[in-house]
């Protein structure tokens, strides 16, 4: 069995005690010591051999796991203004090494600004595990490495989807749903069964039984009452009036049950909140081009969250519709070696729950080519929308799909005044604004309000609806900005 090499990264002087303690703990632990070959600390090298740029980046390349401990200090900077700690992190990211991140302290007050930027940059890509003392650090390190060893198959425990569902039997399987699945998969051209089509035989065909006991995957897909066996399978859908997660909540609905139905219900919840300027409801929800956000994009975001989430995490999936975007919060992290940036490029499939993903593939809920996220990007661009964003927020992986082209990044580049920015945000939240509302909201004269609204219309951020009178209002345009403030076109 190949043993793991671990590279331990941190500011050496500030975190010297933590570095030594983590190294000694890993190498002396009865379990971790059997599967870890070495823990690299730069200070363990003879002084004569310490050529920083040559040594530590080469060691990052040799490692299997990159373990980073971040404190308050940023450390020495090179001529580009980067510390060894950040260079090591960037190197591990580029090389696709598994990265484990531990941040000292519960609050960020008092940190070096550059260290705070590094923590935030890393936190977008992977979970930041915080610790307050040595015992909590060692506890977090141990839990993270055990999870890594399980994912690598170095600890022989069954993955969640392949584990027997405790307390379940074949009587808990809804046989009609199994029959429906077979018929649907065959109609999609992705299943040809030879021999018996009995539900039990179908489950064995897809490796969904352990002996005579259904696996967790079997119960999630075909169980009569999955919620009897799992308390975290809920997909909670919410619709907020504005652009922030704050009351009023226009509607909310928890969905729990078999994954096929939960996915369909969550997708329809979102579609029911979106504008549909082309066609009518009578055309059916399969017409992907009818909604302001393509149905394929909404479905992919929801399916990814349900199929690839970490079911050992007690949290649940959230699907949130805001005035300007859709967010899907998924408990868990990307597989080792895969980053949010790599989701924008062609990549191979890395399903967390392959026994759940396979049946979903057979009925065309997912593909197995690793094209889901790149298809989302392409479909959004074809619909005149910005690319979706993918980011790690603590223990959740978040996919954001924009309902209009005025994303936060775009707005930041337009050179708007604070008042103009406020006008745009109000329109994004409420759908429209009148001159009188602008005067009242921002305490300005009619002339000033007209000037701001006119300039935003000239820049093609807002469009005027109506010509004169009280019925005139301004709403967001559907096109791209004409020019930044002060430009002529």
What does this molecule look like?
Helix 1 crosses helix 6. The strands form 4 sheets. The chain has a 6-stranded mixed β-sheet. Strands 2-1-3-4-5 form a 5-stranded parallel β-sheet, with helices on both faces. The chain is built from 17 helices and 15 strands. The longest helix has 19 residues. A hairpin with an 8-residue loop joins strand 8 and strand 9. The protein folds into 4 domains: 149 residues, Rossmann fold (3-Layer(aba) Sandwich), CATH 3.40.50; 69 residues, no CATH class; 155 residues, Heat Shock Protein 90 (2-Layer Sandwich); 65 residues, Winged helix-like DNA-binding domain superfamily/Winged helix DNA-binding domain (Arc Repressor Mutant, subunit A, Orthogonal Bundle). It is of the alpha/beta class and 489 residues long.
Overall average pLDDT:
87
CATH architecture of the largest domain: 2-Layer Sandwich
Do you know the CATH topology of the largest domain?
A: Heat Shock Protein 90
Calculate Rg over CA atoms.
26 Å
Helix content: 25-40%
Tally of contiguous helical segments:
17
For the record, the CATH class of the largest domain is Alpha Beta
Tally of structural domains: 4
Helix/sheet category: alpha/beta
Distance between the termini: 65 Å
* Global morphology: flat
